[in-house]
Amino acid sequence: MEIIIQPDVRLASLTGARLVAGLVRRKSDAVLGLATGSSPIPLYAELVEMRRRDGFDFSRIRTFNLDEYIGLDPEHPASYHAFMKRHLFDGLNVPGASIHIPDGLAPDVEKTCRDYEAAIRACGGIDLQVLGIGSDGHIGFNEPTSSLASRTRIKTLTERTRRDNAAAFGGPDRVPCHVITMGIGTIMESRTCLLLAFGKKKAAAVAAAAEGPITAMVPASILQMHPRTIFLLDEEAASGLKRADYYRWVYDHKPAWQKG
Ligand code: F6R
């Protein structure tokens, strides 16, 4: 696990965007796993800016989102379909057929989950998975006690997550209870995981995930077992880490050939 601590959200997001762009430069048809929520918004804004300013070409990438609310129309402003359109896809040149987001209106949820897994496999697996982390340690919508080997499936959100996501719906009671989410086993098969966490409210979850025991009570802690996971943090999100000085030193002394 590599832990990169940056002075603020903007610099951390720029570092993340450069990692994504570097991958797409090396592999134009890269498969990106994408997250929603507040954490990746500045990274997505950087990618959109790269497209607008430099004409960066995203036309061959394929994308798979982590999750979607069940029962929400894709046109609903709080749906993750609408979120991705607003924050990323409207500003990039990714063909619609290359964009995959779980179908929250699917009549057969189990089938749509199986098909989602098959579509990821058919694309050759995810090269880089962007992740946020819930204040309870969830990744995707794999809440505490989720199986660490789980696949794409239906999950029930905790009250805490529904409270955390209430703003987009105008109150916690309006947040759907059920979601479709990639499983932890699905996420762990990505070749690189890039977890973004910003702000004081993520400090405890980040510390538990990076330095605590591996446990289904903190789903992100399984990333300790992943061969290439990067945590990209601002100072506040890093404030609970016992070894923060060591992570800073490692990053400052990283050999040039390892960067990019
Ligand atoms: C969203 C997702 C969630 C969020 C997490 C953090 O697609 O999978 O795991 O990444 O809830 O959300 P924010 O970034 O809003 O704090």
Secondary structure layout:
Layout: E1 2-6, H1 9-26, E2 31-34, H2 41-54, E3 62-65, E4 67-69, H3 80-87, E5 99-100, H4 109-122, E6 128-131, E7 153-156, H5 159-164, E8 178-181, H6 184-188, E9 192-197, H7 203-211, E10 229-234, H8 244-252
Parallel strand pairs: 1-10, 2-3, 2-6, 3-5, 6-9, 9-10
Antiparallel strand pairs: 4-8, 7-8
Bound molecules: fructose -6-phosphate (F6R).
Fructose -6-phosphate binds at residues 35-39, 66-67, 132-134, 138-141.
Give a quick set of tags describing it.
260 residues, alpha/beta, Rossmann fold, seven-stranded parallel sheet, 10 strands, globular, binds fructose -6-phosphate
- Supply the number of helical segments: 8
CATH class: Alpha Beta
Using DSSP, what is the number of strands?
10
Strand order of the largest sheet: 1-10-9-6-2-3-5
The bound ligands are:
fructose -6-phosphate
Task: Report the sheet with the most strands, covering strand number, pairing sense and barrel closure.
Answer: 7 strands, parallel
Q: What CATH architecture label applies?
A: 3-Layer(aba) Sandwich
CATH topology: Rossmann fold
What integer value in Å does the Rg equal?
17 Å
**Fraction in helix:** 25-40%
The amount of beta strand, in percent, is: 15-25%
The string of secondary-structure elements, in order, is EHEHEEHEHEEHEHEHEH
Gross morphology? globular
Q: Structurally, how many domains make up the residues?
A: 1
Strand-pairing-aware structural class: alpha/beta
The unreliable regions are none
**Distance between the ends:** 16 Å
Q: What integer is the average pLDDT?
A: 97
